[in-house]
Amino acid sequence: MFTIYHNPRCSKSRQTLALLEPKAQENQQEITIVEYLKTPLSEDEIKALLSQLSCNPIDMMRTKEDEFKEQNLKGADDATLISAMANTPKLVERPIVSNGDKAIIGRPPENVLAFFAK
């Protein structure tokens, strides 16, 4: 099963979902779509994704958003960044696809095809 943390207004997120859907269907895998702007991630969910991504919080953030600058997050510690993503979902990079063990950021969208590489 795959989970995509998705923003339907984002072209990269839509492209990633379009690449994921046929591949998941071929492999008889279900896709859960989480519109994270409507259903924000908790700090624990963010930490789990960070572990699956094997990255630092800053690598999972949209650092060019006005909210990033307004909250003075440049140089902030990991706990502050995680809290900021939980409280301001717009700061979470999109899309993120998880298979439960590993996660991939769909930028570029073709990154998600790594789940299906043999």
TrEMBL record:
<comment type="similarity">
    <text>Belongs to the ArsC family.</text>
</comment>
<dbReference type="InterPro" id="IPR006659">
    <property type="entry name" value="Arsenate_reductase"/>
</dbReference>
<dbReference type="InterPro" id="IPR006660">
    <property type="entry name" value="Arsenate_reductase-like"/>
</dbReference>
<dbReference type="GO" id="GO:0008794">
    <property type="term" value="F:arsenate reductase (glutaredoxin) activity"/>
</dbReference>
<protein>
    <recommendedName>
        <fullName>Arsenate reductase</fullName>
        <ecNumber>1.20.4.1</ecNumber>
    </recommendedName>
</protein>
<dbReference type="Pfam" id="PF03960">
    <property type="entry name" value="ArsC"/>
</dbReference>
<dbReference type="InterPro" id="IPR036249">
    <property type="entry name" value="Thioredoxin-like_sf"/>
</dbReference>
<keyword id="KW-0560">Oxidoreductase</keyword>
